């Protein structure tokens, strides 16, 4: 998911997306531990997508704080 697509979402949608990514990362870790994972690159992609979502959430929070001040 691109950063621009994420910036168009609301903070609630971003939190939902982050929750889904964390669940997927959890499942991928279990698949790796049991040797069932097929696409190991997906772990990296999920981890980076989660970081991207967190970054944009922080940007939106900072923008809201600056708007209030």
Head-to-tail CA distance between termini: 32 Å
Q: What is the structural class?
A: mainly alpha
The percent of residues in helical segments reads over 70%
Determine the number of helices (DSSP H or I, runs of at least 4 residues): 3
Name the beta content range: under 5%
What's the overall average pLDDT, rounded?
95
CATH topology: Helix Hairpins
Shape category: elongated
Low-confidence stretches: none
Number of E-type strands: 0
- Rg is 15 Å
Sketch the topology as an H/E string, one letter per element: HHH
What composes the largest sheet? none
Query: What's the CATH class label?
Result: Mainly Alpha
The CATH architecture is: Orthogonal Bundle
Offer a quick outline of the entry.
The chain is mostly helical and 69 residues long. Helix content is 83%, strand content 0%.
């Amino acid at each position: 998911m691109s950063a621009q697509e994420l910036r168009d979402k609301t903070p609630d949608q971003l939190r939902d997306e982050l929750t889904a990514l964390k669940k997927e990362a959890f499942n991928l870790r279990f698949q790796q531990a049991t040797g069932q994972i097929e696409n190991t690159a997906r772990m990296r992609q999920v981890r980076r997508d989660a970081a991207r979502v967190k970054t944009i959430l922080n940007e939106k929070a900072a923008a809201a704080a600056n708007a209030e001040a």
